[in-house]
Amino acid sequence: MHRYIALPATILMLTACSTEEDGNIYADEGGQQTSITVGDSDPGDDSDGGEANDDVGEESEDEGGVKLDLGEDTGNMTAGDDGGDGNGCKKVDFLFVIDNSGSMAEEQDNLAASFPAFMNSIESTLDEAQDFHIMVIDVDAWVYAGCETLCLLFPNLPGVCEGYVCGETQPEQCEDVLGAGVTSPKGANASNTDCNFSSGKRFIDATEPSLVSAFQCAARVGTDSTNDPERPMEAMVAAVSDSGAVATCNYDFLRDDAILVVTFITDENDDAEDGSAGTVESWRQALITAKNGDESAVVVLGLFGDGDLPDAICGSLDNGGAEQAPRLRQFVDSWDTRGFFGSICAPDYDAFFQEAVEIIDTTCDEFTPPK
């Protein structure tokens, strides 16, 4: 299930490239839930904008506003108005945190494949909340960060630093900022194209002609990360920060009158010793702060290893499974009924996301937008 690159030991000593053996993403069993509320918006200057992608889909006019083409057999999605009066949400901000280490190709494909049905279900269930922001981030600052050393020593090494040109390749704007929205995935198994979001920003919004195509472009973040270990929680915290370069990059993503749905997918545990900075409580507090202290406005969904649970799907790392993830599970559990997790090793993620829709719907119904 996993894609591994066999590198000489010498190379591994010279680079931070990951050689972990990780498992699959997503699962449909063993979910738990949690609640938390958080404030919104990332201040900062507007980031570099993508150009509209004429190949993604077509926009049609309707009495209800812009229609979003979800792709084949998924129906259309209508962007909601900017309302916020009364109880219940009219807007949802989706943040996807996707592991881009060497073993994640199949899991990224599974995530992309499950997205159309997920969003179709969101559209039909959250009938009054059709105004979406969708942002994808990966788990390192720059996928090519360790490539200059590698390609100078081994310029013709296959399967490593794909697309990188020694002495020439430089990061694009925001591309080397941890937590910045992904707009142009690069490297092995990545989309390797500019996703050209119609928003002109680092996230997809209701103006996108084809929501599915745009998401699938961004979600295939690739498997060329040169960071080991991964830092999914640190990337998540950065993505919702209201200060520094990342706030400028992600400007306008978070909205005060929207609920925030965070989905992370990784085949490692994010250990306290060498993983993300902070603690479960500090990660939790970062999301609450991002939503201005309203913990009821946050949903957290996780796909990670379940090898330490009854009826586990994941095997050991050595057998193509995933690392046990008690710390990530603790983070999801801290959100009570607004937290839900599944096994990254499930064959697909459809059942997981269908259950998640119910949690999102309840959170939306109970949300009171700020006046």
Kindly describe this structure.
The protein contains nine helices and eight strands. By secondary structure, it is of the alpha/beta class. It has a single domain (9-366), classed as Rossmann fold. Helix 7 (280-290) links the parallel strand 6 (258-265) and strand 7 (298-304).
Describe, in short, the structure shown:
The protein is α/β, with parallel strands linked by helices. It has helices spanning 9-14, 105-125, 147-153, 211-219, 232-239, 244-249, 280-290, 326-333, 350-366; strands at 61-62, 65-69, 76-78, 91-98, 131-137, 258-265, 298-304, 339-343.
Topology (elements, then pairings):
Layout (H helix, E strand, L loop, with lengths): L8 H6 L46 E2 L2 E5 L6 E3 L12 E8 L6 H21 L5 E7 L9 H7 L57 H9 L12 H8 L4 H6 L8 E8 L14 H11 L7 E7 L21 H8 L5 E5 L6 H17 L5
Parallel strand pairs: 4-5, 4-6, 6-7, 7-8
Antiparallel strand pairs: 1-2, 2-3
Number of strands: 8
CATH class: Alpha Beta
Helical residues, percent: 25-40%
Shape: globular
CATH-derived architecture: 3-Layer(aba) Sandwich
Within the largest sheet, what's the order of strands?
5-4-6-7-8
- Overall structural class, as computed from helix and strand content, comes to alpha/beta
End-to-end Cα distance: 49 Å
What keyword list fits this structure?
3-stranded antiparallel sheet, 9 helices, 5-stranded parallel sheet, alpha/beta, Rossmann fold, disordered N terminus, globular, 25% helix, 371 residues
